[in-house]
Amino acid sequence: MKKRAREIAHHIISLSKSASPGTPFYIVAHADADGIASAVIITHVLNKFDIQPEIHFCNSTEILDQITYTAIMHGKNEKNGVWFFLDMGISSVDRLFRINKKIVIDHHAPKSSGLSSTQKIDKNKFEQKGGDEGTVIFSPHAFGIEDENAFSAALLTYHVAKNIVGEDKIAPLALLGTLGDNLNNGEFVLRDAVRDVLDICMREHHVEIRKDLLFPGKETLPLGQLIFEMNERMHLGFDNNSILDEMCSVTKIPRSHLKKKWIDLTNKEKRGILSFIAKKLLKMGKAPDSVLDMVGDVYISPRHEPGTHMHDYTEFAQLLNACNSMNSALIGYELCRTQKKKHYEEILEHHLR
Questions:
Q1: What range does the domain containing 91 cover?
Q2: How many CA atoms within 13 Å lie on the side-chain side of 275?
Q3: CB under 8 Å to 2, separation ≥6 — which residues?
Q4: How far apart are CA 76 and CA 68, in angstroms?
């Protein structure tokens, strides 16, 4: 895969350097944390060649078709333009036949509606066999990796882009996109494929690792709401009408502390809450693993203010995933790209509506 990533990087360099002035470059990406992070990584790559891409986000093949059709029908030259499809597109290759130069980076399994029987992914070539010579696909499935959760799109994009721009600049984005993809799959623990990226993030002081509650919301949610969110999303099976009263009674934590954030609690209070939840789950017959899975490595950004989504990579990824339903992926993209407070405040405004 590393060789393939280098080959695609050289292909992107060639396209960028040979493009005539005014050649349009488009990025079409999935409107979640993985797609947003991937789009920012490719933007960094294109900016290296003074190229400002046109960005589009979508969450379905129907919108993907609409974006590409509208761009082409409005006179944008599909033969001269260069298109990147990130975290999507592997199952839409047939529908994208009008576009001559396209690069698809997607970790999802190809569906039957995408690659036909004569269009198998070939790991030894850039091109998709049976398709036009301008189609470049980077997919782990070409290398026998059937599990589409083994790699995120952001991680695949990172492996291509690090051959063009400094890896220290884009490694945090690969981590962010991967954590976002994990959340979509109900996972909180990083897989081995991202360990190299994590090492770079730690070396460059982008990340500090702490042992803490894995569930996102520790930075921004009041304790009471955090418990409700955990109960719902982790299927703990607690009665929301009584769980907070019972927890405060058992742990001796004042009810006024339910308005505090998790990060503002003392270590003793945190241990008391985790012990209470663990004992209750075991009493309900839950497997011991469900208790152990609540605590693990948490990825903190020392460059961002505590009490914000951006301070905890998983919480930041969850916020970006919410962009999919808030129609605010472009704001999430700008936040990842610029790290500006105004974009964070814009997303929060959408999030709280």
A1: 2-155
A2: 11
A3: 159
A4: 10
Phi, psi of 135 (to 5 degrees): -90, 125
Euclidean distance between CA atoms 58 and 79, whole angstroms: 22
Tell me the residue ranges of DSSP E strands in the chain. Answer: 25-30, 54-58, 82-86, 101-105, 135-138, 208-213, 295-300
Burial class (CB in 10 A: 0-12, 13-18, 19+), 79: exposed
In this structure, what CATH number is given to the domain that contains residue 31?
A: 3.40.50
Among 273, 293, 313, the domain-final residue is 293
pLDDT category, 91, cuts 50, 70, 90? confident
Distance from C-alpha of 106 to C-alpha of 104, rounded to nearest angstrom: 6
Instruction: Specify the amino acid at residue 163.
Output: N
Residues 145 and 282 in one domain: no
Task: Kindly list the distances between the CA atom of residue 29 and the CA atoms of 61, 147, 240, in Å, as whole numbers in the listed order.
Answer: 11, 21, 38
pLDDT tens-digit map of 229-276: 988 877 788 888 899 999 999 999 999 999 999 999 999 999 999 999
Assign 87 to helix, strand or coil. coil
Among 155, 174, 204, identify where a domain stops: 155
Which pTM does this prediction carry?
0.87
CB within 8 Å of 37: residues ≥ 6 apart = 154, 157, 173, 174, 176, 177, 180, 320, 336
Backbone torsions φ then ψ of 321, nearest 5 degrees: -60, -35
Integer Cα distance of 211 and 191 in angstroms: 17
Whether residue 40 sits in one domain with residue 148: yes
Kindly state whether residues 126 and 231 are assigned to the same domain: no
Distances (CA, A) of 110 to 120, 136, 331, 333: 10, 14, 29, 26
HSE of 8, CA atoms in CB hemisphere, 13 A: 30
Number of domains in the chain: 2
Structure tokens at 192: 């081995």
Q: What distance in Å separates the CA atoms of residue 182 and residue 180, rounded to the nearest whole number?
A: 5
